[in-house]
Design brief:
The protein is mostly helical. The chain contains 10 helices and no strands.
């Protein structure tokens, strides 16, 4: 149990690394939480500092989820301290636990008064390791929605919800044998709703028509 707890804590701390705050201070000497939407995430960095720095933050946040799943989870050895009733092997279950801890760390980071990003990029890094095909489809949907609407939040929400939808369609309509589907499907639904929940304010702004659209133009220097 102690080793599993250490993995959870390490994954949480990696997820908690406030990349958007670090990048914004290094590039412009500002706290990104005091600009734009006030959110400590890649999308807000993109709005304030431009798409290059925003993309950098998104990639770094994605890496946090991947590190938890493919590196930190490998610290575990031996039997689990509880009965594994899931269809996954013990290591895959540890990977899922580590990935969720990283997402939680990103959303509620201990390094920034428990006010972090919205979890989409870190969840992306985790899920890419678990449901690669479905995540690649979701990335395509996200990109298409953002290019058409220029709303990153809308692309994030639709892309997130497409993951369990794609899983369901592949398993039940195309009869693809997805290992651990019966457990993986409700887990993915839970993660998806967590990400959508963190975008609840964006949903309100989208409905009211005052959500900020992203610009691909180079940002000017802030005062």
């Amino acid at each position: 149990m102690l080793l599993l707890a250490i993995i959870v804590i390490l994954s949480y701390l990696v997820g908690s690394i406030p990349t958007s705050i670090i990048v914004s201070k290094a590039v412009r000497g500002i706290d990104i939480r005091n600009h734009g939407s006030g959110n400590a995430g890649g999308t807000n960095v993109m709005r304030v500092l431009g798409w290059k720095y925003g993309l950098m933050v998104i990639l770094l946040d994605t890496l946090k989820g991947a590190i938890a799943v493919i590196i930190i989870a490998r610290l575990y050895y031996g039997p689990l301290p509880f009965q594994n009733v899931s269809p996954f092997d013990d290591f895959t279950l540890v990977q899922i636990i580590a990935g969720v801890a990283a997402v939680v760390g990103h959303i509620w980071t201990v390094f920034a008064e428990f006010k972090g990003g919205k979890g989409i990029a870190t969840a992306l890094g985790m899920l890419l390791m678990l449901v690669t095909v479905d995540m690649l489809i979701a990335l395509g949907i996200f990109t298409l929605v953002v290019l058409i609407s220029r709303y990153v939040s809308l692309g994030s929400i639709i892309g997130t919800l497409s993951v369990p939808s794609t899983l369901f369609i592949r398993e039940n309509l195309f009869h693809v044998d997805i290992p651990g589907y019966s457990t993986l499907f409700p887990f993915i639904i839970g993660v998806s709703f967590l990400v959508v929940f963190t975008h609840r304010k964006n949903l309100v702004r989208l409905i009211n028509g005052n959500e900020t659209k992203i610009s691909f133009r180079k940002k000017t220097k802030l005062n």
